[in-house]
Amino acid sequence: MLSIAVFGSGAGSNFMAILTAIQQGNLPAARISLVLSNNSGAGILGIARANGLPAIHLSRKQFPDERSFADTVLSTLRDHGANFIALAGYMKQVPPEVVAAYRKRIVNIHPALLPRFGGAGMYGLRVHEAVLASGETTSGATVHYVDEEYDNGPVVLQQTVPVLPGDTPASLAARVLAAEHQIYPAAIGRIAQSERAAEHHHN
Predict the structure, then answer these.
(1) Which residues pair with 185 in a beta bridge?
(2) Mean pLDDT along residues 14-21
(3) Distance (Å, rounded) from C-alpha 149 to C-alpha 70?
(4) Which of 29, 40, 52, 131 could covalently link to 57 via disulfide, CB atoms 3.0 to 4.6 Å apart?
(5) Among 16, 4, 15, 24, which Cα is nearest to 192's?
């Protein structure tokens, strides 16, 4: 069973897509154990509270140094039994100690077709501005494993969307977001199913 900690900084629409898939019974081998945000006013925390899920505000600013922040994130994950992390619009770099502890157990969604249009500073509308400036005729969304470098880990799932004449960064973003909401639950379902198959194999 994937017991997922969702990290987010904003409105939480990808979290909502995952939560809805779980509530509708589409992800039987996954549950959400907590939602963590660096932003105390983030919509994602409100959604978590409204659904009776632990909603935790943890920010580097609350701690004297990186190490104590990382230790608290790790102990919070352990306290809630989280064995998997899904980043959903999380605007901070995950502490390397957390990435190491959750190696191959942490995924992110990126609003472009990685490895193109990824890396430091490539987030939000900047991604879509870069895609439009490049003259690409397709973009899309990518779910990938997280390692110590931005947008670098192995791809789990991708979906393409067309770039249309007259697109603005906002109109392209909306089309990509719709694809994100489809593939993030699908990717988590795929990972959960492969784990479940592996468990049956061992028993």
Answers:
(1) none
(2) 98
(3) 17
(4) 40
(5) 4
Angstrom distance (rounded) from CA 76 to CA 70: 10
- State residue 151 phi and psi, 5-degree precision: 55, 35
Tell me the pLDDT tens digit for each residue of 120-140. 888 899 999 999 999 999 999
Q: Is the dihedral of CA 139, 153, 90, 129 positive or negative?
A: negative
CA distance 199 to 195: 6
Are 105 and 191 within 8 A, CB to CB?
no
- Residue type (1 letter), 154: P
Give me 13's structure tokens: 């629409």
Q: For the whole prediction, is pTM greater than 0.90?
A: yes
Tell me whether residue 57 is one of the annotated catalytic residues.
Answer: no
Bond into 115 cis (ω within 30): yes
**pLDDT of residue 165 exceeding 90:** yes
Q: Give the per-residue pLDDT at 126.
A: 96
Looking at residue 149, what is its pLDDT?
A: 83
> CA dist 154 to 94, 102, 158, 188, Å?
17, 15, 11, 14
In this structure, which amino acid lies at residue 102?
Answer: Y
pLDDT higher than 80, residue 46:
yes
- Among the options 57, 80, 110, 181, which is catalytic? 110
